[in-house]
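Hi R.,

Here's the chain you asked about this morning:
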Amino acid sequence: MVRKTKQQSLETRQQILDAAMQEFAKCGVSSTSLNDIAISAGVTRGAIYWHFKNKVDIFNAMWSQIESSIDDVERRYRNQFPSEPILVLRHTLIFVLETAAIDPKRKTLLGILFHKCEFVGELVSLQQIHQAMYLENFERIEKILCQCIEYDQLPKNLDTRIAAITMRSYICGIMENWLFMPEAYDLASCAERMVDAFIDMLKFSPALLCPSLCPSVAPEKMP
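And the predicted structure, written out as tokens:
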């Protein structure tokens, strides 16, 4: 009986999350009330409050489900390529772009985040949470880039912070623009080439090198 009750609770929680995603995608996060979510999910407001504190808590739970899949994929590639961090980075980025296009839930959630979420009122706290996540992601990306440098797969004088900022901007920019008009092109089929283009940038762009570590070049003498 206890096991069945726990399973029912998990099912209700997921039912609420699925309904919230539908309502957020349809009306936007700010314009969606907990009552709207309760009606869509076929539950009471009390049931929502049993599982979640507010809309911010619901949105974060939705986001955590999606992000955990990326963590799992990255771990899998680390096991597959233990001495090739550049391949771990490549395959993980391809996965991020491909799933944005082919995974309906991830596509919907990213569409909400990029185009249906105003950081006003109670959602200001959501903005602060995601700002903190962005900073953590920069450190996480830098760590991967440093591993690539250690294995001589990227330049020794790569400016890892600028490279991390550029990478996040590049990947998020691609997804945001594609989600605005997904009929423009097939993101899933372009993902591999887009990621390879960025990795080539990491390897060969002088603008991503740390100036203090760049070899000095003597100025040419005037004739």
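Residues 214-223 have pLDDT under 50 and may be disordered.

Let me know if you need anything else.
M.
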